[in-house]
Amino acid sequence: MIVYEATKEEFLHDVFEDRLVQSICQNFYKKIGHVNEKEVRAWDNSMQYMYRVLNDSEIPSNAGVAIEFKIPHTSKRVDFLISGLDNQQNGSVVIVELKQWDHVEKVEGKEAIVKTAMNKSMVETTHPSYQAWSYALLIQDYNENVQNEKIQLYPCAYLHNYRLKNEYDPLVDPVYQYYIEQAPVFLKGDAAKLRSFIKRYVKYGDNKENIYKIEKGRIRPSKSLQDSLNKMLKGNREFIMIDDQKVVYETALQLASETVRKNKKHILIVEGGPGTGKSVLAINLLVELTNRHLVCQYVTKNSAPRKVYARKLKQDFRKSHIDNLFTSSGSYINASLNELDVLIVDEAHRLNEKSGMFQNLGENQMKEIIHAAKLAIFFIDERQRVTLKDIGSVQMIERFAADYGAIITKTALQSQFRCNGSDGYLAWIDDVLQIRETANANYFDLQYDFRVYSDPNELRSEIEKLNAINNKSRIVAGYCWDWIKEGKNNPNVHDIVISEYDFCMSWNLGNSETWAIDEHSVKQAGCIHTCQGLEFDYVGVIIGNDLIYKDGKVQTDYTKRAKTDQSLKGLKKMIMENPEEALKQADEIIRNTYRTLLTRGQKGCFVYCTNKELERYLRMRFRQLERSYKESEVTQSLSIVAEEKEEY
């Protein structure tokens, strides 16, 4: 998706007539949402500089210009693209990352990380050259036209307010040289140099053809984590980390080095919602730390992701090697102090107090992990707590860390890689489920495919059709139907029955712990325990009677959960002791469960509700969403008309 596109000649005209920023804002409203004042000021400033750069007769007048290109499946946007043809008449696109910065500080011990002022404080972020380079690689990775037609991408960064203090200026320090070579950085006074860079690759105009190819190119299915583990463990870089991912990654590597060198215990807490790349980052760290000869393990309470990874790896790695890398959260009951260098804990919110089949072993999984590791890295999202036994929290990690005198570092992941990269969709789901009020109550990127079905058979039919493409679409359901013991391994025994629609389906088979990737498992419904920590292209969600709409509110009813569900085990006892707190926890778990299920899809989410009032509520909320888009377009059009009248 591109916010603004034109030929170079049209771009120059729009800037000269003071219409460019107005046009960007109008299109931004239509395609993405509300614009903040800082972005408007940045466009106004940066586009004046790009006007000067492109105002050269040797840059073809019919070269393409695009502003704010949204990279598929992410929430990231490329600032500026210039397209054309090179000397050999091949497609060529220059990517320009624009920055308003005037000061940076070098960050020691972290690859490609600098400090600069943002929101009135100094924060760590990626070097502009790394950012431009990583964005180019993401486009290359996702866009089929770029790959098939061999469109060449040439990234660079333009810091038009930045002056070098001296030859030792931190921005161009030798530690950043590799990425500066991949994506040159141009500064204040370098307009002529940037112009020469563009002219080197854009010799002839293309009438925006390559911009069109990039925007309209079919999006390749993104690399899923489980598909790429094999290559990653062989040393290939499968996922390019961008922005806050890269900052967290380098922070973790620095802490690992420090904890080994100084023999001082460290804790790294990484908070991030669904789709922010926690698992991708965890696996990248596992690979790199293992390559650095550190004793490192990937830890989850939920076995589903571990089993999927093991299946993917078994043909090339010994089972014992895989088991040593991927372990359960209950593995450290008898571990010695600082026995391992690094433990990487994914889905840390799912950690339990006790371990073992009967939950009677050990003291506390968080404490045991901290005890066992010199560095413990906890990836956590407290809103994905989905059983009463899930006790993982930032507060508890901090308490046990203090007991060991560990140094705590806290970071966060914001960049969105799921739900078509739409931060708005996740906020909208939180608002719709009434988990929390959000600013995006009536907004998310409508390129994400969200549908509400009245008939579960229609939902299943569409998911099966999409799954036939690449085996990456699945049906999941709230745990409101008993798992029939006698049919756990028989797909012909149907656990989920919705009689009014003659719909029946089996839960995922008990003899398959790799439901997420098995060839025929689209015929079985997954539950929260088999899909948390994993992702699909499209997900169909069956919402049972534990979530309803009544008296103008979304409400939960724990009594409608299946008797075979262990998520609320112990609730009756809690109700007798503290009914208010017990009902509050049950309500939170049910809402969190559906929040997790509704955010498993990268490209789309389809929903069926057994409660018809809830179905009507979801349709109403989605109509409000569509209406707000139309109203914002009208409002924006009226403001433009008013501005034009003022000019005359």
Report on this structure:
- The strands form 5 sheets. Strands 16-24-21-17-20-19-18 form a 7-stranded mixed sheet.
- The chain has 21 helices and 24 strands.
- The relative contact order is 0.09.
- β2 (64-70) and β3 form a beta hairpin.
- The chain is an alpha/beta fold.
- Helix content is 39%, strand content 21%.
- The chain has 3 domains: 2-216, no CATH class; 223-412, 3-Layer(aba) Sandwich (Rossmann fold); 419-567 and 594-633, no CATH class.
- The protein starts with a strand and ends with a helix.
Question: What attributes characterize this protein structure?
Answer:
648 residues, alpha/beta, Rossmann fold, seven-stranded mixed beta sheet, six-stranded mixed beta sheet, 21 helices, 24 strands, 39% helix, 21% strand, disordered C terminus, P-loop_NTPase, SLFN_3-like_DNA/RNA_helicase
In short:
The protein has 648 residues and is of the alpha/beta class.
SSE blueprint:
Layout: E1 2-7, H1 8-16, H2 20-31, H3 37-54, E2 64-70, E3 77-85, E4 91-99, E5 104-106, E6 113-118, E7 121-126, H4 128-142, H5 144-148, E8 152-159, H6 177-182, E9 185-187, H7 191-201, H8 209-216, H9 225-233, H10 244-262, E10 266-272, H11 278-291, E11 296-300, H12 303-313, H13 319-325, E12 326-328, E13 340-345, H14 365-372, E14 373-380, H15 394-403, E15 407-413, H16 423-432, E16 449-453, H17 456-470, E17 473-477, E18 496-498, E19 503-507, E20 524-526, H18 528-531, E21 536-543, E22 547-550, E23 553-556, H19 571-577, H20 579-597, E24 601-609, H21 612-647
Parallel strand pairs: 4-8, 8-9, 10-14, 10-15, 11-12, 11-13, 13-14, 16-24, 17-20, 17-21, 19-20, 21-24
Antiparallel strand pairs: 1-2, 2-3, 3-4, 5-6, 6-7, 18-19, 22-23
Helix pairs in contact: 1-3, 2-21, 3-7, 9-11, 9-12, 10-11, 19-20
